[in-house]
Every structure is written in C-alpha cells, then in structure tokens.
Amino acid sequence: MRKLILAVGGTVALATPLANADVLGVGANVSYWDSDLSGDVVNKGSAVDIENDLSLDSDSNANFTAYFEHPVPVLPNVRVNYTTISQTGSGRIGLEEFDGILPGASVDSELDLDQLDATFYYEVLDNWVNLDLGLTARKLDGELIVRDTTGTGRVSETTIDGVIPMGYAAARFDLPLTGVSVGGEGNLISFDGDSLHDFNVYGQYELSLLQLRAGYRQMSIDYEDDDDKMDVELSGPFASVGLTF
Q: Which positions make up the signal peptide (predicted)?
C-alpha cells in the first residue's frame, strides 16, 4: 500500500495559537447525509462506472462528531468524526470487462466507505467570527463488491485503506442575539497523484444546549492502493442535531 506524506512547512501556523477557549467545552452531534454518488473504481487495470454501470443508490450515510475544547495554551483542541457510507445497486457491466466479469453481464454491487477522523486544532479567532485551523488524521476504509448474477458466479472485490494526513479549517459567523450562525468546514490533501477533499457549508440554530444544523456536503476521494483505485465523489444535503456543554 502506498503511503501519503503531508509536508505542512508553515502553511498553517499551529505552534502558537492566537486564541483559546475561555472554559471547557464539550459537544457532540449526529447527522444524516442524503448524497449522490459518481465516479470510477479500478481493479487491476479494469474500470467500472459506479453510477452508470452499477446504478448504486444511497442506503445510509450517517455521521457522528464529538469535540473537546479547553483553555490550556499550546495544547490543541480535539475533534473526532466518524462517517459511514453504504450504497447498493443492480446494474450491468459496460462495453469492457471488469475484473473478470464479462461485458454486458448483470451484477449486484455493494459499496462501503468508512472514515474515522482525529483532528487536532486551535481556535485562531473566538468571538462572533470563529476560525479554527489544524490537522486531521483520517483512517479510510473502502470496499466495492461486484457479483455477476448471469450464472458465472464471479465476485470482484476492490479495497482501499490507509491513514491519511489532511489540513483542517473551520469558520463560523454568529448573528448577534439570534442563536443563528452560518459557517463551513473542510479537510484537504493533494499529494503524488492522490487527492481527497471533504467540505461542507451550513446554517445553524442554537437554543440553550440544543444545536440544529442543515447544509450541503461534498466529498471527493481519488486514492490508489496498490492495483486498486477509487475515484469517487459524493455530494448532497445533510441535517444534524447535537448538544453542546
């Protein structure tokens, strides 16, 4: 498996944070993401279009986030995020074979993507304008299973896995005295032909400890693991509910 190495080299100055939380802060939220999927998967040199050939549809895209903020200088805040994506479909292989499955064969397919993020960040601004900068270590696991249903019984498995460092940034703008805010956050890396990005923008309403959020999320994965490669994009609206303390 190829390894990604991210050289930060001063593009994000994390050593000396400009602002810290005044008190301890803890929060968590869960969200549902209604995403559309497109792209290609390559297995040992043969490719398949996961939208047009496999007709994958979203079954469940769930996301869980928790964070811990503190007033201790130098030490970063911590954010953990887990995203699980499951898509299934029935389709037909195109004009070229895919991993031993013949052209025109009917297939059933399953795509599973799991992402576990550990993000270490600093609050650069902490008032009505909030800005966080940091680094994310993402554990990425992806698997595509394609089953030939025409009688040959051929089963193709394509897998990718890796721990990937990414730059992290989040900004939020609070509207005074309303509990309403707008913002966005994202993770990004591009290195040696591989690239990943994961962005979202949202509107948020807070009432006491309750936090309601709705927005749009886009995630792109272009990652090669030995002879297997996934070049896919997911995008669509999401809604979440959370608690902050």
A: 1-21
C-alpha distances in Å from residue 31, one per residue of 81, 101, 113, 117, 199: 11, 37, 16, 15, 15
Q: How far apart are CA 80 and CA 57, in angstroms?
A: 27
In the chain, % helix, strand, coil (3-state, to 5) comes to 0, 70, 30
Residues 6 or more apart whose Cβ sits within 8 Å of residue 244:
25, 26, 27, 206, 209, 211
Fold designation for 29-244:
Lipocalin (2.40.128)
The tokens for 40 are 């290609």
- Whole-number Å distance between alpha carbons of 57 and 31: 19
Using the structure block, give the residue that is written with the tokens 């979440």: 240
The per-residue b/e assignment along 2-11, b for 16 or more CB within 10 angstroms, e otherwise, is eebebeeeee
**Low-confidence winner among 58-67, 131-140, 170-179, 225-234 (lowest mean pLDDT):** 58-67
pLDDT tens digits for 81-120? 999 999 999 999 999 999 999 999 999 999 999 999 999 9
